[in-house]
Amino acid sequence: MSNLDREASLTVCGGRGFVVAEPVRELLSPRHVRLGESTEVRRLLPNLGRRMVGAWAFVDHYGPDDIADEPGMQVPPHPHMGLQTVSWLHEGEVLHRDSTGSLQTVRPRELGLMTSGRAISHSEESPKSHARFLHGAQLWVALPDAHRHVEPHFQHHASLPQVTAPGLTATVILGALDGAESPGTTYSPLVGADLSLAAGTEANLPLDPDFEYAVLSMSGEARVDGVPVLPGSMLYLGCGRTELPLRAVSDAGLMLLGGEPFEEEIVMFWNWIGRSQQDIEQAREDWMNGTRFGEVKGYDGAPLPAPALPATPLKPRGRVR
C-alpha cells in the first residue's frame, strides 16, 4: 500500500542534526489511518516524534485483517518519485502492477521492491481469489540525491538469505545482517530484516554501531533490550549498539530497520519525496496532467487524483519535532 491519506501534508525530514548518537529506548505509538473503505493501517513513520530511521522514511503496519468476504487491498494507480517501496507480507498476497509493465504477485516473506527513481506509478490489490487474512508492512526508503533520478524498476525476490540461532530466524530483506546479504538493490547503507522468534527465546542480534535502528512489532509479545514491544508499535534504539538483546514472551514477529543516519533533508508529500516544495509542485502538476509517471495497464479503475497542496509555505523541521 501507499499513502492514500487525503489530508497529506508537507514534511521535511533527514539531516544529522538530531541523530541520537547513543543507545536509547524510545517507544513510538502509531497513528491510525484509513486507506480506502476496508483497510486501516498503523503509521509509525513519519511519527510526531521521529521522521526517519536511516533512509527508512515511511512505515505502515496493517492487519491481520479477515478479508475472506471482502475485496481486501484495493489501491488504485498512484505515483511515486525519489524513493523505494518495500512490500512485506506475513499473510495474504498482493498483486503489483506498475508503469514499467511489471505484473507480480507478492506472497509472504517475499521481497517486492519498487525503485521509483525519477517517476513511476503503480497499483496494488488483493487477487480476486485470495487468502482469508492480510497482514504486512509497507515501507519506503528515501533515495539519496545522487540516485533519486535513476530509471524506475521493480524487483521480486522469492528467496532471501537467513541468519539462524536457537529459536530465532532472521530473514534479510535489504542490506546485510551478520554476513548474510539481500539481493535487493540499495542506494545507501541500511538493513531491513524480518525476525521470527519462538516463545521463550533469548538471543543477542549483532548490530553495526554506526547505524541507527528501530524495531517494529508485527505479532506476539517480545522484549527488545528489556522494553515490552507489542504489535503495531515501534521502538527507536538510536546508534552506538554492537548487539541487541531480544526475548520472546510468546511466538513473536519483529522487523529490524536500520541504516546510517540520512544526511540530506527531504520533503515528503503524499507519495513523493523531493528536496524542495518546487519538486513537489512539479510532481503534482505532472501527475494531474498525465505526464512523466507513465500508465498502469490492467487495473480496473481510475487513477488516484493528487491532494491539493497546502496554502502555507514549507518550513524545514529536521528529523524530529
UniProtKB/TrEMBL annotation:
It comes from the Bacteria. Residues 41-141 form the Pirin N-terminal domain. Residues 193-292 form the Pirin C-terminal domain. Pfam families: Pirin (PF02678), Pirin_C (PF05726). Signal peptide: none annotated. InterPro entries: Pirin, Pirin_C_dom, Pirin_N_dom, RmlC-like_jellyroll, RmlC_Cupin_sf. Belongs to the pirin family. This is Pirin family protein. It comes from Streptomyces lateritius.
